[in-house]
Structure formats: structure tokens, C-alpha cells
Amino acid sequence: MNPASDALIRLDGVTKTFGSTTALKNASLQVSRGEIVVLLGLSGSGKSTLLRHLDGLEVPTSGDIEVLGAKVPTLKGKALRRLRSRVGFIFQQFELVPSLTVLENVLTGSLSEVSGPRLGLWGYSKAAKLRALGHLDRVGLLDRAYQRSDTLSGGQQQRVAIARALMQKPDILLADEPVASLDPESSDQVMALIREIAADEGLTVVCSLHQVDLAISWADRIVGLRHGEVVLDTPTSDLTKAEVMEIYGRVATTTAEITAVQAELIEIAADVAIESGGTGDPEVDSEGATASAELDRARVS
Amino acid sequence: MTLLADASRAAAAAEAASVAGRAPRRPISPERIAAGLTLLALVVLGILAVNEVGISIPAMIQSWGNAENFMARVGGLTFPDPGDLAWLIALTVGLVLVGTLLAAVLSVPIAYLAASNTTPGNGWRAAARFVGVLTRALPDVVLAMAFVLMFSLGTLPGILAIGIHSIGMISKMFADAIEQIDEGPRLAIRAAGGSKMQEFASGILPQVLPSWVATVLHRNDINLRGSVVLGYVGVAGLGLEMSYAFKALNYGKGLGIALVIFILCVVMEIVSSMVRGAMLGQQKHTRSWIDRIIHPRLGDRASDAGSTSPAWAASPQAAVRRPWTAERVRNTVGVVIAVLVVIGSVIVSQINWMDFFTFWAKLPEVAAKFWPPSFGSYDASAMFAAMRDTVAIALAATVLTLLPSLILGSLAASNVAPNSGARGVARFLLVGIRGIPELILAIVLVVITGLGAQAGVIALAIGGIGLLGKLIADSFEEVDRGPERALRAVGATRLQTYTSATVPQGMQALIGHSFYMLDTNIRAATILGIVGGGGVGYYLLNASQGSRYETVTAIVLMILATVLIVEGLAMWMRKVFR
Fold it and tell me: Which fold has domain A1-86+213-237?
């Protein structure tokens, strides 16, 4: 079967400019059903903008976007809301309503199923409440249901946000740097939860990340972005971290980017050195040296 | 060694010079300069106005004799019968509350249209803002004068006057609150497929509700003080009784009622700040003893949601019924009390609902009386001079208010006050000052200093400290605490932290509030004219008492134009100094 025909998400030559800055430059991408794709790039590379286009939160300056068979830029009003209800969105800053209870926050995920505004818990049906509580149970926060959401820790808030997205019964889950505001332990929990839920529900996931090791351990496929351009699109199975970093090195062009990549490289080198029982000195490690050399070449070009 | 140090110092200096060479020049925006000069000009004009009014302490001491004579004439304070008094208090509070609530309800759609992040279009936004400015510029006394003509005497003219005039401030504060929300939760609801209305109800409303309630309570306090003036034009309640007493030269009774009003205002102020504290309690970082009384369980909430999960959380089925925690009981009791108070207020104000039907029949006839505007028997240049006097009074009062407000307001902010004692004293002073209705202050001052602008300026300046000081305290408490912590970590003193972290963050609000003060003072200066405080208000009262309504319209239009100019200036300043 032609893989393209199975694509749930299709971007074709999408360009987006905000005033004089170009956030996306002729970006094309296809994601098939059940795939887990990570958008990898430094901050400002256009990952968030790309994700927001998939949910109709941004309208492209030019290009076509098709999600779940609908041409997103042409959608308006009810049709747009129907598409959004089938696409769950996880934000870096969780974006829960701080003064509402955890349960009410999860219930807001079902707003597209009802018409008219809802004030307070009594506005939702018992069935909806049961479903929301079930999702809370699944993310392990049932006992927090009636607490204000701003009394939870960051990791817990992100789990509530996942429950809210599940409340939409989505086909696609978009996640914009879901763990960038979390500590490593909560990050692992949240990523594991997303992975597990995606497998159980057969969700298609597009997730933006900037940590290379997380991306490798987590994605089926990595799409690299730089200055709004897709510069890399490859399955993860045959990639090692050093290889990705090599590419990452090529991706970086400005001084700040190179510094960031260099820091990562030294870290990898140290890791490898420790694993291989080495001295821990990055200079003597061959893999680190290769990557550094690669970086130097990138800087020259 | 020294050679080496010298060399490195020279190198550092050379590098610094080259950095200075490479650094971009600080951009100079002509608009910023113009705005700064305007601000300076206003302050200078204000100081000149203070001079012109000729406030002098010796003169005031000299006229102290007048006050003694007056007090001798008063004899002792007398009060109405306890039963009558209780009824008058209930009536006054009830009608003010209903009026404020009416304004709050009407303000919601206006604020939605006026807020930059919710408005459907710039046309709607401009229209909504215009409604806000217009209602704010129309003094409630003037509205009441018009409504008294259309409705029978009683509470309805007062309720409508308060209800319409308060839209101006409430809708503006509501809109500001909407503009300050965190857009994220709202975006999340949009991303989940929610409609505009759902975005508002679930994403915006929960975020703005505490601030909205605080605004309504705050306005309610202002309206209670303003209700005194409404009595002078025939609205039922304590104000009307007081005006009767003064007209009958029964000073003892008049001042007795004034004292009752003062106490009522202070009590209301304390009640509303307690309610506000309880509503904002969850976000508080500091805890005064008052906070501890209002929400004693705040501290141990985090710990009681501990590791063992409660019985109701065993399964989703069991959890569907919300458990009656202490917090939920407290919230429910609060809501029930609020509903009962509102129902009680509607009953007590004895609204004559039939008026709403007869009103339409009278409307064309009454409207015709107010149109076309004309100065009538007054000389136009004399009217403009009177308006100029009113603006001068307002400017002088605002300038006099600024410094004391900044000091008291800063001391009252929890993140600036050196200790809770100083903060308590500052808050107490602000509440006390705010409790004094300006009209009563002005009446007393007129007695002491004689008729004229002096009484008006002092009354407004003192009254302004209460309002501006409070607004300053609130906006200083709202600044991001991060920069303050950072400066303290750098080793800055308390004063340095204040000037480098707190004030710069609160500066925009400070300028905004000062212009709001000027705007309030222009309208208040008008009203004070009614009791002999000088300016255009005197002519306004004369015109309305002489039933020359077309002159009332002309004067109101003049005030309106002035307030609109100030409003325009304020908008510009906020835009430039953001």
C-alpha cells in the first residue's frame, strides 16, 4: 500500500511568516496512522508553530495542511471545532485553569461534545464526570479530583492535561515540549504515560522536543527542524545518539546554537567515557572527538 | 606584580572602551519625550493650581474659630429613632448594592467587547470603550436628577443612577482583568474544540472572577459614599434625611447622620476587604492575623492531601460525589450568604416595578426638557472659567494626593512594608480615609475654611489618598516577585529593591491610576461645587434647582468633553510607558 494514502497528517510546502520573521519555510511532512514522530530542533526552529498549524491555531501564509482528511486552513467555526476535538494538544506550560478543580479541568476536554458554556461541575453530565474520573484514575490522580489544579506539582499538572486531552477521545495527540518545564523524574513519568496511552488507544503522536536522548528513546521517527525548514526526516531504529548529534551539529549555525550543541557533545562524551570505564576526560574519547570534529567542520562551513 | 595588574587594568579599560563603541545607542523615541513633557507640564500646572487656590496652614488655623462657632451652634449630636435609623441604613445599603449589581451585570458584555483579547473587532471595541467612558463621565448625581423626573421619588432613580454610572469603572476594570489573564488555559480549551462562549465560561471567567468580585465590592464602597450626594437630589435613604436636616438647620441631626454614614462606610469597607481576602486567599503568600481568622485551614491543606488516598477516591464511581471538605462547606456557606444578601437588598429597596412601564410614556417629554443644550442666562465665558476652576481644583488635589498616596500605598503593600505592623497601620489609615465620604469632608471643610475652592481641594486631596493609596498598594502587591528576590539575592537593601524592582514594574499602573485619580477628581470637583466647593458644580446645581434642564445638558456636555480629553491623555500615557 502506498504509505501516503494512509497519512493522517499531511503538510505540503507550508510557509508561515510573522511580520518580517519566517517561522516555517516550505515545510512538508507526512505522518501515518499510529506513528510516533518527534520534531527535534532548538528553540525558535519552528516546532511549536508547526504543531499549532495542525490544530488550526495558526493559519499558514501559504501551503496545504490536511489533518484527518480535512483541509485545516479552510475550516471555520463548527467544522474547525470538530477537527480540534479529534486532536488532543499537550502544552509545555500545561495550561490548566488554575482556579478550577482538577476534575473541572479534565471535563473542559469534553466541551466540544456539548453546546453552550458550562459554569461549575453541575454543568456536566454524570456520564461525563465518570469518564473524566476514569481518566484521572488512569493517570494516577483520582484522589486529587477536587483540589484546585494550581495546588499540584508540575508533573501532576501535566498528567491532568493528558487526562483532559483523553477526554476528547482524540485520534491524534500533539505535544509541544511536554516535559520542558519538568524535572527529569517527572519527565520520564510523563513521557512513559504518553507512550503507554498512545499504544493502548492507537493514537498518532506528534511531539516536539529539544532533548536528543529523549527523542531517540521515544520516537519511531525523528524530524529535524532548523529555521523553519525540515532538514532531517529519518526512522530512529538505526540511529545512535552520536549520529543524531552529528546531524544536530550540522543543524546548528549560530554561535548560541553551536554552544548548546557543544555542551551536549561534552555530556555525551563524558557518558560514553564513564560507560566504557574510561577516565571521564572527553578529550580522550573517540566518539566525542568524532562529534567534535564534526562540529568544527560545521562551524567552518 | 603591579605592572601586571596595571597592564590587565589597561586591557580591561581598552576592552570597555571598545564595548562602549560597539554598543548600540539608546534609542530616543520622540513620543516618549512628548509624553514625559506632558506629564511634567501637568504636574507643574497642578503645583501652580495649588498655589492659586492658596492653601495656607496659617489661614486654616485662623479659621479654626469658625469651626468652634459652628460646633457651638450644633449643640449635641442627635440621631433618628433606632427603628427608623435601622430602616434607613438597610434602605441605603440595599439600594446601593442593587445598583452596583445592576452595573456589574451590564458590564460583563461591555467588558468582553472592550478587552483587546476577546473583542470580535476594533469597531466593537471602540463602541464598548465609548460606552464605558460616557457612563463614567456622567456624574451619578446628574443621572439621578434626570431619573427623579422620570420616576416617582424613591429608590429607583438612585439604583439606576448608580447602575449606569458605575458601568464606566466596572466595565473598565473587568476588561483590564480579561486582558491580564493567562492566555494558555483559554488556548487549551480552544484546542480542545471549545466555542467562544465555552472559552469565556471555562477559560476566562474562572481566572477573572476573584478580581471581578473585588472590583464590584470596591465599587460598592464608592457608591455607598456617593449615595450621600444622591440624597441631595431626592433619592431615598440616609443622604436624603441628612439633606433635610441640614436644610432645616438642624446641624446636630445632620452631623449625627453624617457620623452614621461614616461608620457604615468603614464597616462596609472592612467587610468587603475581608470577602476579597477570603476570595483571593488561595493565592496569598503572606499571612496576617486577619488572614488566619478568615481561612484558618490554608496552611495545612498541602499536607492533608498526603500520601494515603481518602476513601472516596477508591474508584471513579465512588468519586463522582464531591466530598464535603471543610473548604467546600466554607465556599457553599459563602455563596448562600451572598445570595441571601442580594435577595434581601432587592426586597428592602422596594422597587416600584410599575415605574418601568410608565417610564416609557414620560421619556420623550423629559428628554425634550434636556434638549437642546444651552447656557441660557449664563455667560459662556463665565462657564468656561468655572470649568477651568474645576479642572484646577482637580489637578491641585491630584498633585497633593500623589506623594502621601505613594508613601502610604507602598507601606500598605505586603512586599514593600518593612514589617506587618507598619503595613497594618498603613492599611488602617487607608481604610479610615476611604471611609469618609468626600461630601461630608467638604461640608465640614466649608464650615472651617469658608466657601470656595480651598475646601474642595483639601477634601479631594484627603479623599484621594484613600483611593490612590489603595490602588498603588494593590498594584505593587501584584508585581512579579521574582525580580525582587533576585535583587535581594544580589545584596540590595530593602529600599534599593523597592526602587529597582517594585516601582519599575508598577510604574505603568501608577501612571494609569494617577490619571484615573485626575479623572475621578474632575467629576468629584463638580459634585463638590454643589456644597460650595467652587467651580462648575455650583452652576450645575443652580440650573437643576431652577429647572433649567437645557443648561444642565450644556454643563454636562462640557464636563464630558473635559473628562474625555483626560481619558485620551491617559490612554496615550499608558501606551507610551508600557
Answer: Rossmann fold (3.40.50)
